[in-house]
Write a structure and sequence with these properties.
Number of domains: 3
Strand order of the largest sheet: 5-6-7-3-8-9
Distance between the termini: 79 Å
CATH architecture of the largest domain: 3-Layer(aba) Sandwich
CATH class of the largest domain: Alpha Beta
Number of strands: 20
Radius of gyration: 28 Å
């Protein structure tokens, strides 16, 4: 066996009084393709910098084979010292022969960057692509990539995967993109509580392996000091619980996808058999032959879709394809150039704000969630703030800590807690996984798996889409937008079959005597008196039921109602369910009559 290219022995590092690493030993071989995993704040990026040699540990030894070259792609590379994309990428070359310079032009063309593009004008995605190009042109023996898929679209992620599959050196990857790690790695380093554990298998085996280790530790150390339990409980128990819940959730998701496939396949006969919401009607969004363009750039053309209550719809496409525009069209924020969009009544939409504008550093965690009471309304149901914080992996002792004291990952979790508590039956998430650590990503997936409303999700995370959505809307270029049942993997398979499959001619030839056309009833030319009466009176009935629902919700929001009178609380809950069901029926009837009226005009 060949000796390793690089080793760390008994490596230690402290930040202040706290040890970040203690006695870390690791070795990187020439054929290792390593996923470096660990909870947020464990020190993964710092460890990668020690491997690269840009951070000096407090103790231990770093050995690297003579002549071995290491290249590091950091999360936020600095391009300010370089005039344009070509100069920046070329700075990664080990030698400067004409052949090497030619490789710079080739990879810039592959990754879709103009060689003369000024570095000062680059977007976050363009900077990331330039940094990847710079790393790939280096003749390096060990390539270190820290969150390389951030701000990349799926097409670029898949291009990068193919390049890395043929990479001849060693790889070390930090990423929250599970599909990316599953497809590329054959070794896993788990950075956990200051030590590194090694598994000689890829990331796809990590969850079962780590769960087994944690279960063994729980058995062996059941009587150990509570401090260790406090430090690890929030993340490790979460892993175990999530794995056990996920199988049931995936079975439920498969059932939903089967229903969605039937709805897509049979136009005009979509039905939803299970009532998965209480306030919105069955038809949430209906788009009919909508088109939109910006000048000569056609975003979509003649696109139709019907989104029903409880659907979870993923939206994918290259950066700049118009995914956000499609979201705005479907939610009524933007009027299409052609076609129409009809929204169901009583829609309460919520956008996930990744800019953290909903939280303030000067407030405490408790104040961020509370309106003065010790309970928070979570989609219409009261829940104690401490209990709700625990759902989002916070310790009770953090409730009165200032937001400014939280880590980046904790701030993201607090933002999720605040946003997802809002009463909503339509949740719209525009690239929510950007810059999320894997713990928070797991948490978001858990919350969305249990969400009983309708979900519109723009994401470049293939695994995230596979675990959540019932159908995928793909923006395929030149205005071509299509809906496919299932998640991203289902989309990729169906699209390949559609494009690559044999184009069969119609094998069934018409018989000599054509069958007589079935007689159909003449199409109505105007609404009946019954329909007109219902259209005039249904809005009044809907308003009356809505007021009754609001009254009941206000009564149920009283913090001490359940403890004071459980029977009354349960009675009012049953009344709320009854009125919610009535509201859904009335709204469906009104929406269908409105569509009929428009078709007859």
């Amino acid at each position: 066996m060949a000796p390793p290219l690089l080793t760390l022995t008994e490596m230690t590092l402290r930040f202040g009084a706290n040890p970040l690493f203690k006695g870390v030993d690791l070795a990187i071989g020439a054929t290792d393709r390593i996923s470096l995993v660990g909870r947020n704040g464990a020190g993964k990026s710092t460890l990668m910098k020690i491997i690269h040699g840009t951070v000096e540990p407090d103790g231990g030894e770093r050995f690297i084979q003579p002549g071995c070259h290491v290249t590091y792609l950091e999360q936020d590379p600095d391009l300010s010292r370089y005039k344009n994309a070509h100069d920046y990428v070329a700075s990664g070359l080990v030698s400067s022969s004409e052949h090497d310079k030619f490789q710079v032009d080739i990879i810039l063309a592959e990754i879709g960057l103009d060689a003369e593009m000024a570095t000062g004008t680059m977007s976050g995605g363009e900077k990331r692509r330039a940094a990847i190009a710079r790393a790939l042109v280096s003749e390096t023996d060990i390539l270190l990539l820290d969150e390389p898929t951030n701000h990349l679209d799926i097409a670029t992620i898949e291009w990068l995967e193919e390049r890395l599959k043929s990479w001849r050196g060693a790889l070390v990857l930090i990423s929250h993109d599970r599909a990316f790690l599953n497809n590329l790695t054959n070794t896993t380093f788990w950075l956990d509580r200051g030590i590194v554990r090694r598994l000689d298998k890829g990331f796809s085996h990590f969850e079962n392996w780590s769960e087994t280790i944690l279960e063994q530790e729980a058995t062996e150390r059941a009587k150990l000091d509570k401090l260790i339990e406090k430090e690890t409980d929030w993340s490790h128990k979460g892993i175990t619980a999530r794995r056990k819940r996920n199988m049931g959730r995936m079975r439920k998701l498969w059932d939903l996808r089967e229903k969605r496939a039937e709805q897509i396949a049979v136009t005009g006969s979509a039905r939803l058999t299970a009532d998965s919401g209480k306030t919105s009607g069955k038809k949430v969004i209906e788009a009919h032959k909508i088109s939109a363009a910006y000048g000569d750039n056609v975003i979509l053309k003649d696109f139709s879709v019907k989104i029903l209550r409880g659907d979870r719809v993923g939206i994918i496409g290259p950066n700049g394809a118009g995914k956000t525009t499609l979201l705005k069209l479907l939610t009524g924020q933007q009027i299409p150039d052609q076609g129409r969009v009809k929204l169901g009544t009583n829609i309460e939409a919520t956008f996930l704000d990744q800019n953290r504008s909903l939280i303030k550093d000067t407030a405490t965690v408790w104040e961020t969630l509370s309106d003065g009471s010790d309970h928070i309304m979570v989609r219409g149901h009261p829940k104690h703030i401490i209990s709700y914080l625990k759902d989002f992996l916070f310790d009770a002792s953090q409730a009165h800590s200032p937001v400014s004291s939280l880590s980046g990952g904790e701030k993201n979790r607090l933002l999720l807690a605040k946003t997802l508590a809002q009463p909503t039956n339509l949740l719209i998430l525009d690239e929510p996984t950007n810059d999320l650590d894997m713990d928070t990503l797991d948490l978001l997936q858990d919350v969305l798996s249990d969400y009983d409303g309708t979900l519109l999700l723009v994401s470049h995370d293939r695994d995230f889409l596979d675990r959540l959505v019932t159908s995928t809307i793909a923006m395929e270029g030149n205005g071509d937008v299509r809906e496919y049942p299932g998640g991203y993997s289902d989309y990729a398979r169906q699209r390949k079959n559609r494009l690559d499959g044999p184009k069969k001619k119609n094998d069934s030839k018409p018989t000599k005597s054509k069958p007589e056309k079935a007689r159909t009833a003449p199409k109505a030319k105007k609404l009946t008196y019954k329909h007109q009466y219902a259209l005039e009176n249904l809005p009044k009935e809907i308003d009356q039921i809505t007021r009754q629902i609001e009254t009941l919700e206000n009564q149920l929001a009283e913090p001490d109602l359940y403890s004071r009178d459980p029977d009354l609380f349960n009675k009012k809950m049953k009344e709320l369910e009854k009125y919610s069901s009535q509201l859904a029926e009335k709204e469906d009837e009104w929406l269908e009559l409105e569509i009929l009226r428009e078709e007859l005009e």
